[in-house]
Amino acid sequence: MTRFTQLPWARQVRQGSGALKNWETSEVMEPIRAVCRRLHLRCERNNTGVARGLKNQGVMRLHTAGTWDLTVYLPDSGCVVMVECKMPGEGLEPDQVEWAKVYRACGLEMIVATSVQQFLVALEEIRQRRRDPIGA
Q: What pTM, to 2 d.p., does this model score?
């Protein structure tokens, strides 16, 4: 086991074919990214850890541990939404809880999603709250 397998995005299990697969990414994150594309929302993935360069073998640092999975921009609501994708039954890691405090202090909206449907419901709630701040 390498030290990289301990990173959140590296949680992988073997499939029937022997290939490694990160279920959180394929079952939750990728469908959410696809629905954002269909809704014409800018959605950026926040990878954590380090990556090697292709040409010069240098190391590039990515986002800090605990950074939430996706950043979704809602120009019609005037806000940024941080999305953490989780398999059903899983909770936030301590690093992710710390980042949630930072996001909240900065006025960002947050969604912890276990499915596309849950993401869409939470997104609509954010839009409604932003449209009618008095009724909130």
A: 0.75
